[in-house]
């Protein structure tokens, strides 16, 4: 009985300690800032950490970041508790859209609203301020769609490297100009989003891009030109009301010998 009581009191004490903050036990408050401890004297540095379903970023000194942060050339926003945000976001009277993975959307249209190179919404006449009506926490992976799914030059890689040396698994691999994935969305989705990068097999003599087409080959999104050493591109495109969506590879520079090899990670639609 005493042993059981001692165990209960120990568990209660641990629960109290872990309550500040709620995700503590691994979080440590050091020099008035938060660090994420993985083990004895081992902290996270320069990386994303997922805790209790939320994403946090730790800088080169291991401190949790808040506010706007540019990470590997991509802008993200973390609130005051360090949680990465997504969806429509207003800052200093300017509206931005943060993709499901947190990356700031640029040079695209979301919810019928045009976003510029700086990610800021450029209101058209009569448009009202946006609202977060999409479920960005429930992705429907294109590659998992069976009915209404068609492809060309497509396969799923179990393990492959992109040009930056990152190893991707369970990602789409498209080889050759004109290669594509296509899905009959039937007007059920609002957003298509994902990550695109050249494979490590992408030849230096080539330059490619991906284009998202809707009904009647309407262009919904065009990526920047993709070079052999291009960093990962995160993109989103408004697919509201579209019955079919096609993501296709084309060549900007062709040496008429090598095929472009493009990887797409987490390509999904959202309602």
From TrEMBL:
This is NPCBM/NEW2 domain-containing protein. It comes from the Bacteria. PROSITE patterns: CW. The keyword Repeat applies. Keywords: Repeat. It holds the Pfam family Choline_bind_1. It comes from Enterocloster hominis. Cell wall-binding repeats lie at residues 45-64, 65-84, 85-104. The keyword Repeat applies.
């Amino acid at each position: 009985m005493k042993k059981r009581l001692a165990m209960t009191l120990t568990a209660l004490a641990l629960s109290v300690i872990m309550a500040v903050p709620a995700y503590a036990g691994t979080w440590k408050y050091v020099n008035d800032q938060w660090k994420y401890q993985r083990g004895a004297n081992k902290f996270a540095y320069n990386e994303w950490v997922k805790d209790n379903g939320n994403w946090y970023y730790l800088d080169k000194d291991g401190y949790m970041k808040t506010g706007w942060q540019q990470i590997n050339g991509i802008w993200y926003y973390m609130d005051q508790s360090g949680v990465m945000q997504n969806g429509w976001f207003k800052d200093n009277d300017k509206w931005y859209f943060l993709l499901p993975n947190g990356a700031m959307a640029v040079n695209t249209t979301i919810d019928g609203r045009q976003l510029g190179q700086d990610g800021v919404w450029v209101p058209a006449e009569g448009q009202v301020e946006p609202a977060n009506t999409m479920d960005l926490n429930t992705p429907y992976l294109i590659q998992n769609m069976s009915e209404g799914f068609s492809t060309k030059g497509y396969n799923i890689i179990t393990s492959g490297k992109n040009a930056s040396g990152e190893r991707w698994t369970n990602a789409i691999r498209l080889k050759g100009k004109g290669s594509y994935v296509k899905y009959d969305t039937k007007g059920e989705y609002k957003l298509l989003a994902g990550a695109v990068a050249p494979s490590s097999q992408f030849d230096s003599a080539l330059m490619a891009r991906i284009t998202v087409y809707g009904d009647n080959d309407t262009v919904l999104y065009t990526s920047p030109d993709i070079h052999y050493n291009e960093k990962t591109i995160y993109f989103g495109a408004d697919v509201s009301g579209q019955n079919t969506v096609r993501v296709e590879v084309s060549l900007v520079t062709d040496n008429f010998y090598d095929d472009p090899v493009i990887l797409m990670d987490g390509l999904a639609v959202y309602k």
